[in-house]
TrEMBL record:
<dbReference type="InterPro" id="IPR051275">
    <property type="entry name" value="Cell_adhesion_signaling"/>
</dbReference>
<dbReference type="GO" id="GO:0005911">
    <property type="term" value="C:cell-cell junction"/>
</dbReference>
<dbReference type="InterPro" id="IPR007110">
    <property type="entry name" value="Ig-like_dom"/>
</dbReference>
<dbReference type="GO" id="GO:0050839">
    <property type="term" value="F:cell adhesion molecule binding"/>
</dbReference>
<dbReference type="GO" id="GO:0098609">
    <property type="term" value="P:cell-cell adhesion"/>
</dbReference>
<dbReference type="InterPro" id="IPR013783">
    <property type="entry name" value="Ig-like_fold"/>
</dbReference>
<dbReference type="InterPro" id="IPR003599">
    <property type="entry name" value="Ig_sub"/>
</dbReference>
<feature type="domain" description="Ig-like">
    <location>
        <begin position="126"/>
        <end position="219"/>
    </location>
</feature>
<protein>
    <recommendedName>
        <fullName>Ig-like domain-containing protein</fullName>
    </recommendedName>
</protein>
<dbReference type="InterPro" id="IPR036179">
    <property type="entry name" value="Ig-like_dom_sf"/>
</dbReference>
<keyword id="KW-0325">Glycoprotein</keyword>
<dbReference type="Pfam" id="PF13927">
    <property type="entry name" value="Ig_3"/>
</dbReference>
<keyword id="KW-0393">Immunoglobulin domain</keyword>
<dbReference type="GO" id="GO:0005886">
    <property type="term" value="C:plasma membrane"/>
</dbReference>
<keyword id="KW-0472">Membrane</keyword>
<keyword id="KW-1015">Disulfide bond</keyword>
């Protein structure tokens, strides 16, 4: 949150959009809220990189950049400023930060606020998990399968750690306790392998919290006598 203290009569930004997580194709809502209603807002600029997406002039006239004309809805409310950006894509997060600049009157004095804490993040679908670690094991021994995947969410600096879910015949091993199946993140260890284990199908599913998920191909282990 950006706060600028103004001498005598303070009007600050009570809240800013901050870091927002959406999926590609979603409509994104930015809302900047003031602590108090300014006597009069003179100008408003909302920028992304070097592009002024929305400019509200002293006359009250609003102009929207041509590349955003069909995608942007702008509202100047009682104590807040609202921007809706439709159908977001990768291009909308390359430069990450959306900035609000406002010039307004409070206590008869012209003041300004600048906020650049509106950052947009898009969930991506993790790469398809690949299982490795060997599939041939002697009966009675242990075997460990490893799941490899990576996030495709952007920008990269906000990527969340992947969560891993292992299944056996579509039964979740991550939440179902089993004395012979031990899940440790991207690893699944099967202890004291039995001949019957070769008849079961194992998969790994990866995903970010709140994001999309990807599932590996089915694998089966080969049990040697």
């Amino acid at each position: 949150m950006c706060v600028l203290f103004i001498t005598d009569a303070a009007v600050t930004l009570q809240s800013s959009p901050g870091l927002m997580r959406y999926h590609k194709g979603d409509d994104v809502t930015f809302i900047w809220t003031f602590t108090d209603k300014p006597e009069r807002i003179i100008t408003i600029d909302i920028t992304y990189n070097t592009i002024i997406i929305v400019k509200r002039l002293i006359s009250g006239q609003v102009s929207i950049d041509g590349n955003y004309k069909d995608r942007v809805t702008f509202e100047e409310l009682d104590k807040s400023i609202k921007l809706i950006l439709k159908d977001v894509s990768d291009d909308d997060v390359i430069y990450e930060v959306y900035r609000l600049s406002v010039v307004f009157v409070v206590g008869g004095t012209s003041s300004s606020l600048n906020d650049n804490k509106a950052e947009l993040y898009l969930f991506g679908k993790p790469t398809k998990p690949v299982l490795s670690g060997g599939q041939r094991v002697k009966e009675g021994q242990d075997i460990t399968l490893m799941c490899t995947s990576s996030s495709s969410s952007i920008p990269v600096k906000y990527q969340l750690p992947l969560r891993y879910t292992w299944t056996r015949d579509n039964i979740n091993l991550t939440t179902t306790s089993s004395s012979r199946h031990r899940v440790n993140g991207h690893q699944l260890t099967i202890t004291n392998v039995m001949r019957d284990d070769r008849n079961h199908q194992y998969t790994c599913i990866t995903g970010e919290d709140g994001g999309l998920s990807s599932e590996s191909d089915i694998t089966q282990i080969i049990v040697l006598c």
